[in-house]
Amino acid sequence: MTMEELYREARIKASSIVPDEARQSLPIPVLHSEYLQVDFIFAPSFLSVKTGEILYPPAWQISFERASGNLLELRKVDPSYYGLNQAAQDEIGKMAMPEGVDAAQFIAYRTRLLKLCDPLFDAFQRGDDGASSRKMADEYYKLFQIVSERPLHPYYKARGQAFFSWLKKLRNAS
What 3-state DSSP class applies to 143? Predict the structure, then answer.
């Protein structure tokens, strides 16, 4: 299953308990000794004409086994699950389209990032730090800065700590 397919599958599988208006994260790889897990977190959001889309800490997480696409778990979470000291009802930030990026560009960037996840996550699982992995890491980082939800960055880094450390190492080696 490609990461684009898994991204869509996460929303479908989570729909039984996650409200439609919850913000879905990008995929977060979590390395285990036997397999690569891919998590998606869902953060409650509230859309207001006056203030825009307001995000709250993640309240749900869905996990898949990367190679098979099999669902591992769908669970309720709170900030403490990620080691963060934040109240579940506290606003964590507002969502907005990145400056200078229109909706069509945003979708194209997100699509490219999801396509890049397939070979990049495979390289992460192998511990590959070669030139092609460094090039993918640079592109991923640039796209991630555009399409990821900035208020969720602490959660991305907490859940995908090994991946983001590997990504930083590769980018520093470039």
Answer: helix
Q: Where are the beta strands (DSSP E) in 25-91?
A: 28-31, 36-43, 45-48, 52-55, 60-65, 71-76
Residue labelled with tokens 């640079």: 138
Q: Write down the residue that tokens 């979590």 correspond to.
A: 30
Length of the chain: 174
CB-based contacts of 24: which residues, under 8 Å, 6+ apart? 7, 10, 11, 14, 40, 41, 42
Q: What is the pTM of this model?
A: 0.94
- Residue 93 phi/psi, 5-degree rounding, is 155, 180
Average pLDDT score, the chain: 95
Question: What range defines the domain where residue 52 resides?
Answer: 3-173
Number of structural domains (the chain) is 1
